[in-house]
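Look at one such:
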Amino acid sequence: MPSTFLGLNTGLSGLNYFQTSLNTTSHNVANANTKGYSRQQVSASASQALSISASYGMMGTGVTAKSVDRLRNDYYDTKYWNTTSKYSEYAAEEDNLKQLETYMNEMTGNSGYSNWLNRFSNSLQDLADNPSDYTARIGFTNTVDSYTDMINELATNFQNSQKSINDEIELGVSEINSLAKQIYELTQQIITIELRGGSANDLRDQRGVCIDTLAEYVDVDVEERSIMFGTGLDAVESDAKAMSIRINGNILVDEMGYHELMVVPREERVNQSDVDGLVDIAWKNADSTPGERFQITRTTGKLNGLFNIRDGNNGELFKGTITSKSDDPASVTIELPKSVNVYKLNVPSQGTINLNGKEYIYDGWTAEYDEDDNLNNFTFQNMTMIDGSGAEVKAIIKDGVVGQVGQIGEYNSTKGIPYYQARLNEMVRTFSEYMNKLTTAGVDEDGNDGLDMFTAVDPYGNDYVLKDTMTGTGTIASSDSSYYKLTALNWELNSDWQTTPGKVVVSYKDDIEQGNIEQRPIVDAIMYGLTDVKMFQQGSVSQYMQAVTTNLAVDISKMTAFANGQDDIKYIISNQRLSISGVDSNEEASDLVKFENLYNLASKVISVLNEVYNKLINDTGR
């Protein structure tokens, strides 16, 4: 037999349920613009019915609000995170390539290489008209010096971009560590609340925002599993769930704690024109020392995009077979699959080399060259290694290393800053070698042998003497004054040409000896060289630079297309996700009206029953 007051309790259950629904709707409206907020709704079921001794058998007892649930779809979350990582990678590459393009476009403008090549040509014409005139010579040398300064500035800007990207990588690592800590702390709060039977919807939303941000930097693999009570066959699932996040296959966060990444400064350069202070990423050990290296190229995200532009070499890394080794001093010889021209060489004079998976440090190299200035059989000398205590000691190279692979740097198919720096270096070396052959074949106004027109300053403040450093076949060392020493960063007009107009070479020895000071065959040859389409594979020096600029523009177009494609996909998935978890103002307004009416009806039920009970209790028996 049901209680006399069952109806009142039934109406009260409806009043409580609709009050909870109104509060939840109010919460949804208040957070309509909150980033990452998931719409919530009250989950309810009919209360347990009463069994009574009557023909109808059971009597309802009202409604029970079981929980307040957040509307979220894990499938869309996973798709969103994957797409976010890809988009962020392409966007990072696009943005930084556009920065490089800005520098290159400046070089094509009124103050760029095309303009300075025209000035170069005009100053040569003035010199051709007055070969012995010092004013013409000074005007010529000032123009050429300004041209080299322009190339220096371009290469320096590329280095500055590399440094900025490196700083952004360090900030990215710091942000990942901060997010890992936040996710762990939120997870602990969520587990504590849910183990006690509570709801941690808003904390879960906060954690979701952190994961959204984390996915911008690296590809994330998120897994949730129920926390079990008991062990073995007796174990049962609790209402709480533990979360683990993996990046690059390794645990970043789980219920036990969180791990951190750290930046590890490179002691040596990987590419000849790299800026100092570049960093790699490693997992941080408990004692704050670097642990296992974080293989950034195996993941997607903004960090990978930054690394691609900072270190991208178009796959043109130094890699060959180790053919021999020696122990005193420690050295190895590596044969390349294909010889590399000295003008295209991008190997640092001192650096780090990987021999069969182990890192060694070298302080110089020698290489064999042929009559076409192609290099092979590189011998890396005076090698050291880092021992377990972090000290640099003499290298111990095992016998089994012969026949294995030796390489400098890592394969990266992106055309990043190292690639374009190498192209600029190739330009200044090839152009210098072409012009220096012309000037060293002549004499100055005093009949002295002609000097190199283009060179660079050595560590002692003197110009490198480049002529005849590589003739026929032989061996060249990284310390030799070869064209390898010239880069777009240090390229300049011979200092003697700049300070002494009489050193400018315009004639051959016979002309000077015969007093033909107005003869200028070398000037004519230099003028022809500016437009010689055989100087580079791409044509003249101007065409070569235009090819580099065009190549960069094509790469940007590709990255823009990739980024836009992923952005469109991300937009679609985001809308799909919002269609489930987003707050719709019209829908919430409708719910407010609906729950208000239902609340009023529940109140009316209680009011009616109040009158019934009043009549029953107070008026019965009068």
